[in-house]
Amino acid sequence: MPTTALSDQARAKVNLTLRVIGRRVDGYHELESVVVFADCADSLTLAPGQDLSLDASGPRVVECGDNADNLVIKAARLLAELVPGLTTGGFALDKQLPIAAGIGGGSADAAAALRLLARANGLALDDPRLMEAAGRTGADVPVCVASASCIMSGIGEKLTPLPLPRLPAVMVNPRVGVPTKDVFAALGLKKGQLNVGITDLVAAPAWPDRDAPLGAWIAALSAVVNDLEAPARQVQPLVGEVIALLAACDGALLARMSGSGATCFAIFGSDAEAKAAAQSIQRAHPNWWVHAGTLS
Cβ-count burial of 80 within 10 angstroms (0-12 exposed, 13-18 middle, 19+ buried)? Predict the structure, then answer.
């Protein structure tokens, strides 16, 4: 068992596309999404062997609520139920990402906790108990365990690798709440109802090769939408304003919302264009969360 603290990064998740296939009779929504990960992250450390606990700090810590309800603690407890004698410990979270923002901040933290517990206990990342604990913690946690670009489908449990090129991007969160339950309520699917036609189910998108020109990827991504974007705009019209602002930036190739919002993103043709756009938006909206970086 490691005697020194272990550390990991909880990278932000971005949904480049998000189709809501339908709503199952049990109430869960079936999704299909191209997921990538950003170069902005929370930091998590684990001191193995201590009592299970969480100490949170950082600029977003006031948004986290009660530590006892944090997904880091939930994931650790669920894994301990599945792995007899699991060594847990004291977690320390540096919270940098906005929460309830459509970029999986809490889910990424939980996934980082599972990775750290796997290291502390000699478990492989593909250990089925690890992924079971991830799925029971939350729908976005399994995809965050590997934090690698993929197609996520089902209710988040089906992951198919999809290598993407490095994408210069700007992410913007206007610091308004867009509750996921309200967005799905606005989508309005009844139990057992499909949201796509049979043709959509059969004709899967043809994704370019990783080394294809950026324009080919933009064209392919542009052909698939985020089905939650329209209902999110109904819940919070500011989402539409953020997307329009990003789309109007010089060099923006594609602008849309991630997940259920309110974080939106734009892909740019170059790092310089992304950086210039982020600086302009931050000057105009100093209270917004703005990040220029890459998605991959």
Answer: middle
Every domain of the chain with CATH number 3.30.70.890 lies at 167-295
**Would you place residue 177 in the very low, low, confident or very high pLDDT band (cuts 50, 70, 90)?**
confident
Domain with CATH 3.30.230.10 in the chain: 6-161
Domain 167-295 sits in CATH 3.30.70.890: yes
Parallel, antiparallel or unpaired: strands 150-154 and 53-57: unpaired
Answering whether pTM is above 0.85, one says yes
Distance in angstroms (rounded) separating the CA atoms of residues 119 and 98: 27
Spatial contact of 249 and 292, defined as CB atoms under 8 Å apart: no
The length of the chain is 296
Cα–Cα dist 296/286, whole Å: 27
Query: Which of helix, strand or coil describes residue 200?
Result: helix
Q: Which residues are catalytic?
A: 13, 140
**Is CATH 3.60.15.10 the classification given to domain 6-161?**
no
